[in-house]
Amino acid sequence: MQIDLAGRTALVTGSTQGIGAAIATGLARAGARVAVNGRNADRVGAAVARLMEDVPEAPEPVAVAADVSTDEGTARLLDLLPDVDVLVNNLGIFGAQPALEITDDDWRRYFEVNVLAAVRLTRAYLPGMKDRGFGRVQYIASDSAVAIPAEMIHYGMTKTALLGVSRGFAKAAAGTGVTVNCVMAGPTHTGGVEDFVYQLVDRDLPWDEAQREFMRSHRPQSLLQRLIEPEEIAHMVVYLASEFSSATTGGALRVDGGYVDAILP
């Protein structure tokens, strides 16, 4: 399957590292003009430089330093990038916290960053996609959407919300040539996840042992029995961005290593 995204512009929020950076690279390899987004201009610039080095044949990336969890940051992004063909709402925060210690401010912050930022961008870009008769909106959700982790229920709540948001916007785009989907990522190997793992297992363990202990003790349902690599998530996103996925919309597609013990999400 040869995926060709030449002539398409794609925005990946939170794409200076981890899953977002892998998605940006995958879209660029397929020929898309990719907008790299993050809050810090230096980190965005460094990510763009890495992308250009890794995929020199791709169209020149767009650097968008803006905090899209705020109205002001979103307005800045839309000034720089008024239209996109592919919107990947990847931005998200997570962290372990006892359920009864999650404050109102914590709940609000997680909702603002993980859900409302994606809703705001979808609301901004979906009308233009519908007018042009093509568009791909994606939300990076998680196995935590349906298997709420006891150590971070506020995070799980936001990922559950994205499933509803995705299905609802898919209905709003019905019959227009625009598809809207969620990608449910399983436990994935990123720098941030390494920090998270070491919150839950012995910090003195070497990484390979720490990963095995984390999966055994905290994610025993995984059929993969290892952390997923970011590129494996990116493969699904690139497919969903393409013409090949034209009949896939309103769905929650799992790239979770078999973590969720159910046939449907």
End-to-end gap: 27 Å
What number of structural domains do the residues give?
1
What is the architecture at the second tier of CATH?
3-Layer(aba) Sandwich
In round numbers, the mean pLDDT is 96
The low-confidence parts are none
Task: Report the CATH topology name.
Answer: Rossmann fold
Helix content: 40-55%
CATH superfamily, please?
NAD(P)-binding Rossmann-like Domain
Radius of gyration, rounded? 18 Å
Describe this structure in words.
The chain is of the alpha/beta class. Helix 4 links the parallel strand 4 (86-89) and strand 5 (135-142). Strands 3-2-1-4-5-6-7 form a seven-stranded parallel sheet, sandwiched between helices. It has helices spanning 18-29, 41-54, 71-80, 104-132, 153-172, 191-200, 207-218, 230-240; strands at residues 9-12, 33-38, 62-65, 86-89, 135-142, 178-185, 252-255. It has one domain (9-188, 228-255): Rossmann fold (3-Layer(aba) Sandwich). The radius of gyration is 18 Å and the shape is globular. The mean pLDDT is 96. Helix 4 (104-132) packs parallel to helix 5. The relative contact order is 0.15.
